[in-house]
Amino acid sequence: MHSADGASEIDLLFPGGAEPAGNPGDQVQPSETLPSTGIESVAEDPSASGAGHLRVYLAAAAGAGKTIAMLDEGQRRRALGADVVIAVVEDHGRPLTQAHAAGLEIVPRRASEYHGARFEEMDLDGVLRRNPGVALADELAHTNVPGTGQNAKRWQDVLDLLDAGIDVITTVNIQHLESVADTVEQIARVRVRERVPDWVVRRADQIEFVDASPGQLRHRLLQGEIHPAGQVSQALTHFFRTDNLTALRELALRFLAEEPAEDFAGYLARLRSCGRGDSAERMLLGVTPVHGAEAMVRRAARMAARIEADLEVVNVASQDGGRGGDDGLTRLRQIAAEVGVTWHGLEGDDPASALIAYARDKRVGHIVVGSSQRSRFHELIGGGSIVGRVSRLAAQAGMDVHILALPEADGRFS
Questions:
Q1: Is the Cβ–Cβ distance between 313 and 332 less than 8 Å?
Q2: Do 139 and 229 reside in the same domain of the chain?
Q3: What is the pLDDT of residues 244-261, one digit of tens each?
Q4: Domain span at residue 132?
Q5: 241 and 165: one domain?
Q6: Do 287 and 268 fall into the same domain?
């Protein structure tokens, strides 16, 4: 969502710092005009009779010049006599973008207030009333401010324009495609909030790749052409790392090549594996000396063997040593040794937090715990189950959680 002064909602969160003020998915204009590569994917089937045609400018990341390419195409069509309007373009006050938009009619945006702030969105009804031949609609993945129109997403607005017989030219970065977003989150360690269904982009009559090398994008970032100066250092070491940009470029090219779905899915799986490093090969079992814990160790060992993961068994003891004595831990350590897995003891008054913190440090990809045997009443008065907290914290850390059923017994695993 974009405010009237050009601010934009963040769709990628860089870990370890404050949210940047600019949207890493925004179209950023380089210091010179950059033509698109000419690499195109053209739909085999024409649009349905009466429907508008869709052209998409696709890029690996912000800074490639998608918005300028879109505006230049609009200017070209206008020079040939087409009725072209700007439905929405995010220029963020950049003179170069404004120069490329000069002379194109702009349909006024619809202003609204949300949580005390003023925002402007594309006025879908206004564009439909204007009924141009061609509409330029930047940022296909954009999320509309609630209450500003009938659609939640800009791609839905675009579909409405197409249904009305209006040709649309739009832009999108590869990380926003639904099939790719989860993989990007893993390899780049960012959150992709705004997503577009693949079929929306695939239905385009033309998809053109606006290319820029990782070196070019990093240079533009250093020149202040992508993010404000205060965000450059963090961006260079996170999303705009060379390996991330290289992977994103490869993703975009493979998508554009329209390789078979199973081949593309296999490539995404390999990227996810590489992105997680050795975390996908590590499993951690959290245990306490309760009835059924020995069986849990053996079951977890079999699970780890099936996915070829290294298993570590972890017990978290209270820092005050309140349990006292051995209390069955020796037997669990013996079982761990028998099945050939590592044992580690931790101390902490918050077992769930201690377990997840250790898992993060060890780059664990899988957490295994036993099901809670506390009654609902005891969970309510005791602040919930440890299993529940482990599941929530693990999900936030991007780890898979496996919950094993424990047999009923007097000893309770919480």
A1: yes
A2: yes
A3: 898 899 889 888 886 666
A4: 39-275
A5: yes
A6: no
Residue 409 belongs to a domain: no
Residues 125, 263, single domain; the answer is yes
**For residue 109, how many C-alpha atoms fall within 13 Å in the half-sphere facing its CB?**
21
Residue 225 domain flag: yes
CB 309 within 8 A of CB 283: yes
* Nearest CA-CA partner of 157 in 203, 125, 205: 125
**Tokens 């099936």 appear where?**
306
Q: How far is CA 100 from CA 13, 71, 74, 85, 182, in A?
A: 30, 6, 10, 13, 34
Instruction: Write out pLDDT tens, residues 356-383.
Output: 888 888 878 888 988 765 544 344 444 4
Q: What is the pTM of this model?
A: 0.59
CATH at 103: 3.40.50.300
What is the Cα–Cα distance from 60 to 174, expressed in whole angstroms? Answer: 5
Q: DSSP character for 177?
A: B
End-to-end CA distance of the chain: 43
Residues paired with residue 2 on neighbouring β-strands, in sequence order: 8
Classify residue 196 by its DSSP letter: B
- When pLDDT is averaged across residues 296-309 and rounded to a whole number, the result is 81
Distance CA 91, CA 386 (A): 49
CATH of the domain at 394: 3.40.50.620
Residue position matching structure tokens 């220029």: 91
Tokens 């998608």 belong to residue:
66
Please say which residue of 255, 275, 295 terminates a domain.
Answer: 275
* C-alpha span between 33 and 367 (Å, rounded): 50
| Nearest Cα residue to 209 out of 56, 53, 33 | 56
What CA–CA distance (Å, rounded) separates 45 from 30? 34
In a domain, 27, yes or no: no
Please answer whether residues 402 and 303 qualify as being in contact, where contact means their C-beta atoms are separated by less than 8 angstroms: yes
Q: Are 159 and 52 in contact (CB under 8 A)?
A: no
Number of domains in the chain: 2
Same domain, 251 and 299: no
Among 185, 193, 78, residue whose Cα is nearest residue 136: 78
DSSP 143: B
Q: Is the same domain home to 233 and 119?
A: yes
Which amino acid type is present at position 208? E
Distance CA 26, CA 171 (A): 10
Say yes or no: 134 and 118 in one domain. yes
Provide the b/e sequence for 69-99 (b: ≥16 CB within 10 Å). Answer: bbbbbbbebbeeeeebbbbbbbbbebebbee
